[in-house]
Design brief:
The complex is a heterodimer of chains A (514) and B (335). By secondary structure, chain A is an alpha+beta fold. In chain A, the strands form four sheets. In chain A, strands 1, 8, 9, 10, 11, 12, 13, 14, 15, 16, 17 and 18 form a twelve-stranded mixed beta sheet that branches. In chain A, strands 4-5-7-6 form a four-stranded antiparallel beta sheet. A two-stranded antiparallel ribbon of chain A has the order 2-3. In chain A, α10 runs antiparallel to α12 and α16 runs antiparallel to α17. The radius of gyration of chain A is 25 Å and the shape is globular. The two termini of chain A are 27 Å apart. The N terminus of chain A is likely disordered. Chain B is an all-alpha fold and 335 residues long. Chain B has two domains: 72 residues, no CATH class; 238 residues, MetI-like fold (Orthogonal Bundle). The radius of gyration of chain B is 24 Å and the shape is globular. The chains are: A alpha+beta (514), B mainly alpha (335). At the A-B interface, α4, β10, α8, α14 and β17 of A face α2, α3, α5, α7 and α13 of B.
Chain lengths: 514, 335
């Protein structure tokens, strides 16, 4: 009897059911309605509360079934039929079915939907162009959900894996209305237990989860604004992980056996855009000269402390269709001077280099990066004056093409190459105000990108995107600078945490080793 | 006295209106379109237009101000554009944390500041005076941010006596009544949570108390010195009253008037939120919230936050004036 009791006690000790993991981040979530939010800290929590028809694979942006068991597209690529799981319930007990899915997406799409007009904007639905893509949605029976498109649009399926397309409990939205963002109800492996703003956000395991039971009983997010304080909490063991790692702590974390550091190139790109509408950057020779002048290797090593890889393409290596056969412009000031001479600028020229006023995820030290580039350009005779504006003004001016040279970057949304190339370099995005701030208008590139949007075959699309990247490389509207790494530091006993290219932080399989 | 308080409260209304107008004009004069700031790199024209409309930025300024004032009259501070939450709710969630920290810091600052000031005044020119005043000068000049980090490094990491940051250990939770964790824990009879909340308060309160403590110490010293030189003190001593009684009953009471003003003002400052201390200790108060709101150009949040600060300041000043009259019978506001 005693032995049995001891055995029971011992098994209780190794049981992971009551494990609590504390994770620190630099800011609290803004809200937890997946369709309304726009900030990363909100999405990181939503990743664990909600699920979608399709989801990204654990370590890539390839897609796998989630709330849909399977799906098929009609031969004209216009009708997408999803066959839903029938064993799923929301945290509040509401069954998940096609009507719930229609509600979740329909509130964003149909203007006459009772929950279309809410506090806030369904900004990602708009931003990802879903209004222009979707023609209608239907729920013919409980387990079948149909989306009809206006035209074939291949990145559409990747969009469905994004947070804004998550299934929300219609009961909860109807009950809480505009307060749903603080009373979130999804189908995910965790549910919201407590939220003290700016302090802690506590998720508890969803005991009736349809998939494998999560190992953690509780997951506590703490908002710790100062990176050094968060690091001290990690060292002391009062938090188990953090994602606001300051480069200055990297070496210490790597050297500490009680800690582990995960890093991989993020799904982002930092770039120097040359305004192709403004001389001398209307000349391809000048643009290529700048590509030879800037030392990206040194930028990545010195200003990102190695937590970045030099960029060759606009598309980061973590996104499929990244063209790794392109030979980068070598750092060669002599060649740059030669190209400038050929372009008619033997003694260089004066210009302005615009730089954003605040750190961005893809560029933590913009002013230092600008100074390094300024020095690189000076070496080939280009005298660039640094220009800075307040962030909102900066964006407004660069979108309107007032700059000759400007620094900016992009973090990918859905892991599709279209989300980099079409958004940032297609001629459609060069209409002012436009996100193509090189105002690069290439008809061949446009044709390739539009063709890739209309093709559903992944291999064929990859072929088209690779061709587009070659033309872009040759036309050189940008100096692609770096792809900044995403970094997470954890206590050594944390297991099962995987970095995802899209920055998703799933805690479903995470546990603490004893 | 009552009439006086009523008058002061009535006078607060135009002051607050003025503050609202000033803040409204200022936030709209600052360059940078808040919708653009919020969307950043993904400000596609159609999203930008939708967000500008949602934020009401596409309406003329007087209309925007009119709507804001109308809301205020109904007790509605509007919604934060960042979080879609009522600004009043946002403030209610964070103000208790600021209050708790400010109260703890003030308690420390008053006790230590007055103590040090009295000691310095009584030992004028001697070692205690010099040490006390050196400490006060250091308190005034040491950067709060640095001090906070040093305290954390020393007393939370090197010798882990206190927690590094936060208001409560992650595993604990207190059902809110007032929002002041120490008070709520006592009300709920949860001594463990009370001890934990106090334990979390120590380092941030010490950090935040340095400046007011220094100011209070210097003020106490100088006004006590001035009072000790008065004739009535000499008379009291000549009557044969014990020295400590003279100091406490006669000198300190009279010397406390300017100190009280300083205390009220400093308390007002602290209640407005302490951005740096809140940042270092991950303290979820209004200071850091307001700082982020300014950064995001969250107009309704900034307006609500500043209005709260102004109200707190007016209340603190009023409290000081009322205490004046209570301490000094010569002051009669009614006349």
């Amino acid at each position: 009897m005693l032995a049995a009791a001891l055995l029971l006690l011992a098994s209780g000790c190794t049981d992971q059911t009551d494990q609590t993991l504390v994770f620190a981040r630099s800011a609290d979530s803004v809200g937890l309605d997946p369709a309304l939010e726009g900030d990363g800290e909100s999405f990181k929590v939503c990743d664990n509360l909600y699920e979608n028809l399709v989801a990204y694979c654990p370590e890539s942006t390839d897609l796998r079934p989630q709330l849909a068991r399977s799906w098929e597209a009609s031969s004209d690529q216009l009708t997408w039929t999803f066959h839903l799981r029938t064993d799923v319930r929301f945290h509040d007990g509401t069954p998940f079915d096609a009507a719930a899915m229609l509600f979740s997406l329909g509130r964003q799409f149909y203007r006459d939907h009772p929950f279309h007009r809410v506090e806030g904007t369904y900004r990602y639905w708009k931003d990802m162009g879903m209004d222009a893509v979707v023609a209608a949605m239907e729920a013919p029976d409980d387990s079948t959900f149909v989306i009809r498109l206006r035209e074939p649009y291949a990145p559409f399926l990747s969009n469905l894996a994004m947070n804004f397309c998550a299934a929300v409990s219609p009961t909860a939205v109807q009950r809480h209305g505009s307060a749903f963002f603080k009373n979130p109800v999804g189908t995910g492996p965790f549910r919201l237990q407590e939220w003290q703003r700016d302090e802690r956000l506590v998720l508890a395991r969803n005991e009736s989860y349809w998939g494998a039971r999560p190992a953690l009983g509780r997951l506590i997010y703490r908002a710790i604004p100062e990176a050094s304080v968060a690091y001290l909490e990690l060292r002391r063991g009062s938090v188990h992980g953090l994602d606001s790692v300051s480069p200055e702590h990297v070496a210490a974390i790597r050297a500490d056996p009680s800690l582990q550091l995960l890093a991989e190139p993020g799904m982002n790109v930092a770039y120097l855009a040359m305004n192709t509408e403004k001389p001398p950057f209307d000349q391809v020779l000048v643009r290529r000269a700048l590509n030879h002048a800037v030392d990206r290797q040194s930028l990545a090593a010195n200003l990102y402390q190695g937590l970045a890889v030099p960029a060759v393409n606009p598309v980061p290596p973590t996104v499929w269709a990244h063209n790794d056969t392109i030979v980068p412009y070598a750092h060669d000031p002599g060649r740059a001077r030669e190209l400038l001479r050929q372009a008619g600028f033997p003694s260089g020229f004066d210009t302005e280099l615009w730089v954003m006023p605040m750190p961005r995820p893809y560029m933590p030290q913009p002013t230092k990066v600008a100074e390094a580039i300024q020095a690189d350009l000076a070496r080939v005779g280009i005298r660039a004056r640094l220009v800075q504006f307040e962030w909102g003004t900066y964006l407004d001016k660069v979108y309107n093409g007032e700059h000759p040279l400007a620094l900016l970057g992009w973090t990918g949304d859905n892991g599709d190459p279209d989300n980099f190339l079409y958004v940032l370099l297609d001629k459609d995005a060069a209409t002012k105000p436009g996100q193509n701030i090189a105002f690069y208008r290439s008809e061949p590139v446009h044709e390739l990108l539009v063709a890739a949007r209309r093709t559903s075959d992944r291999a064929a699309r990859a072929h088209l995107y690779r061709a587009a990247q070659e033309i872009i490389h040759s036309d050189a509207p940008w100096v692609p600078l770096v792809h900044a790494a995403q970094v997470v530091a954890l206590r050594a006993q944390v297991r099962g945490f995987r970095l995802h290219p899209a920055g998703i932080q799933w805690f479903h399989s995470v546990y603490l080793a004893r | 006295m009552r009439r006086y308080i009523r008058q002061r409260l009535l006078l607060a209304i135009p002051t607050l209106l003025g503050v609202s107008l000033l803040v409204f004009v200022m936030v709209h004069l600052v360059p940078g379109d808040p919708a653009q700031v919020m969307l950043g790199e993904r400000a596609a024209p159609q999203t930008l237009a939708a967000l500008r409309h949602e934020m009401g930025l596409d309406r003329p300024l007087p209309v925007q101000f009119g709507r804001y004032l109308l809301g205020l009259l109904r007790g509605d501070l509007g919604r934060s554009v960042r979080s879609h939450e009522q600004v009043a709710v946002e403030l209610r969630q964070r103000f208790p944390a600021t209050c708790e920290l400010a109260l703890a810091s003030m308690l420390l600052a008053v006790a230590l500041g007055i103590g040090a000031g009295v000691l310095a005044a009584l030992h004028r020119g001697r070692a205690a005076d010099q040490a006390g005043m050196a400490l006060a000068t250091a308190g005034l000049s040491v950067p709060i941010f640095w001090l906070g980090l040093m305290l954390v490094l020393g007393l939370a990491v090197r010798w882990p006596l206190f927690p590094v940051s936060g208001r409560l250990s992650p595993g604990l939770s207190i059902a809110p009544v007032t929002g002041l964790y120490t008070v709520d824990a006592l009300l709920r009879g949860d001594l463990r949570a009370f001890a934990d909340a106090c334990w979390h308060l120590v380092l941030p309160a010490v950090t935040l108390s340095t400046v007011p403590m220094a100011v209070i110490a210097r003020m106490t010293r100088s006004s006590l010195l001035e009072t000790l030189g008065q004739d009535y003190i000499r008379t009291a001593r000549a009557k044969g009253l014990p020295y400590w009684r003279v100091v406490i009953h006669h000198a300190l009471r009279n010397a406390s008037l300017p100190t009280l003003t300083v205390i009220a003002l400093e308390f007002g400052y602290l209640l407005g939120g302490a951005v740096l201390t809140e940042s270092v200790f991950a303290w979820p108060g209004v200071g850091r919230w307001l700082f982020l709101a300014v950064q995001a150009r969250d107009f309704p949040a900034v307006q609500g936050g500043v209005l709260l600060m102004a109200s707190v300041f007016i209340a603190a000043n009023l409290a000081a004036d009322v205490l004046y009259a209570w301490l000094d019978p010569r002051i009669r506001y009614d006349s």
